Amino acid sequence: MDEFTYSKAGVDIEEEERVVKNFLKTIGFKGDRVEINGMKIVLCTDGVGSKVMVANEMKKWDTIGIDCIAMNVNDALVMGARPLAFVDYLAMERMDAKMAGEIAIGLRKGAEQAGVEIIGGETATLPEIIRGFDLAGTCVGVVERDIPCHMEEGDVMIGLRSTGIHSNGYTLARKVFKENGYSFHDEMDEIGVIGYALLEPTKIYVREILELWKEVEVKGISHVTGGGLKKIKRMDPDVCFNIKEPFTPQPIFRIIQKLGNVSPMEMYRTFNMGMGMVVVVGKEERDKSLDILNKYVEAKVVGEVEKGKGVKVPSLGIKI
């Protein structure tokens, strides 16, 4: 069987990075925050991606709003910002009251979990552009911590468990199941109905992170989304993040890897593989950090900061 890759499925991560780099250069991007009356503000914008196609096929739209909130508020945390408010953008092929109502339920639940207010948004009918619907949003946050900051050899990497695929890698995941003859309505022993497993909402990490940085000097946070482990390098390009004890991926990842004959490297550069967020703290803060985080989510030490560059998982022979 030929190996499935994200690129063959239609998403070229390297090309995306090149396009984004040139795009930012052209628009004159100078920084990821703005200061207003002494207060630093960040804005995060993201969507749910092709996960909406699974929601449409399953006719289940009541959790997709949680994903939309999660992708934005988790990104705000990475910049040391407390999420404050949110606006959504819902584009539909045609107005569907049932669909819109269920999407709204998810948005409300996500906002409650994140502790943000939804203060507005936009709904558009675009029959010549949209098939089904698309959902995106923007979060505004106020910077409370100056992160990422200098990291040094011996700093501890704490991983926070994901709830599954979250909202990235769906182009590859969908094609693996479809091209192996599966419908999203089919059941598999380890995961139940495939479509429902794929719709498991993205974990929102706001409560635990806000409590953590009240008590601990957090040096960096990485939201492990598109690009997988590559996102971790953004915390500090001048050190090596050695993941000695990765999380055991949920069954959904193992199934995708087996069905698609996907290499470990491709899996870890496409999906979160069971770890939705990484926090870096000094080694003296290890135990206190674990005590705080484990009140909300499964958390464990997954590795440490070393001399060098990049991210590596020695047990899997991965170096990114």
Break the fold down into its secondary structure elements and pairings.
Blueprint lengths: L5 H4 L3 H15 L6 E3 L2 E9 L3 H8 L5 H15 L2 E12 L4 H18 L2 E9 L7 E11 L12 E6 L8 H10 L7 E2 L3 E2 H5 L7 H10 L2 E6 L16 E4 L7 H10 L3 H5 L6 E7 L4 H8 L5 E8 L3 E4 L4 E2 L1
Parallel strand pairs: 3-4, 10-13
Antiparallel strand pairs: 1-2, 2-5, 3-5, 6-11, 6-12, 7-8, 9-11, 10-12, 13-14
Helix pairs in contact: 4-5, 8-11
Reading the helices and strands in chain order gives: HHEEHHEHEEEHEEHHEEHHEHEEE
Shape: globular
The name of the CATH superfamily of the largest domain reads PurM-like C-terminal domain
Q: Roughly what fraction of the amino acids lie in strands?
A: 25-35%
Question: Largest beta sheet: what is the strand line-up?
Answer: 9-11-6-12-10-13-14
Tell me how many strands there are. Answer: 14
Report the biggest beta sheet as strand number plus sense, adding barrel if it closes.
7 strands, mixed
The number of distinct structural domains comes to 2
Rg (CA only): 19 Å
Instruction: Indicate the percent of residues in helices.
Output: 25-40%
Number of helices: 11
**Which residue ranges are poorly predicted, with pLDDT under 50 across at least 5 consecutive positions?**
none
What does the average pLDDT come to? 93
What would the CATH topology of the largest domain be?
Answer: Phosphoribosyl-aminoimidazole Synthetase, Chain A, domain 2
- In the CATH scheme, the class of the largest domain would be Alpha Beta
